[in-house]
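Deliverable D5.2: sample structural annotation.
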Amino acid sequence: MKVFLAFAFREQDRSLVDYADRLLASQFVVSRTGEDLGGEQLTPAVQSRIDECDALIALLTQRDAKVGGGYTTHQWVQDEVGYARAKKKRAIALIENGVDVGGMYQPNEYIPLDRVNLLPVLLRLSETVGVWKRELGRTVKVQILPLPLARKVGGGDNGVRCSHRLWHQGTFSGWTEVTPVPEGGGTFVYVNGVQEEHLIQLKVEEKGKVWQSTATSQWMQVQLSAGGGR
């Protein structure tokens, strides 16, 4: 899983960014930022990075004091949140106390950010990332058998198409085309978005011929025999 961290490039926010980055690393999540792109605006390069990620976390921290109370925040960070949501990405904003966003985040879940009491903030962010990971599922590596068919499928652009679908509680997903990868030990496909309870089915098509597996458990079966142990 990849998450884009949207934040202001300011020294006073560096510790918050570090905490968020360490939290993501502890959950084996890769973080990306727009920091090395050097601009305080939503550039095509930043958009491309957001496109490559599965979700976005935004730090909407205090910027300028407003007449009458409250603070503005960083427009380019808000633009990054808006872009991610327009692309149907998972996104959550951490909004610092006192920041006035004009109610624009009320329809969406957000996390109030209190610098003095960060533990509840980080716990809630960790729970959110955990939910995202469960929703996205895992990537499962599946070997194609029998070997003669696997060699044909792994031979490159030869008119052979391979696809998979997932089964859960009596319902199949649609077929999704996958690219077989010939590796040492066989030919494999990588199936994304697999939940613990899913069964996986593969299909290979070539010039009117179809090979299709049964919907199979993703868990390995181990056959035990009596004797031979201590």
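Annotation notes: The first helix runs from residue 14 to 26. The chain is about 25% helix and 30% strand.
The annotation will be released with the project's public dataset once the embargo ends.
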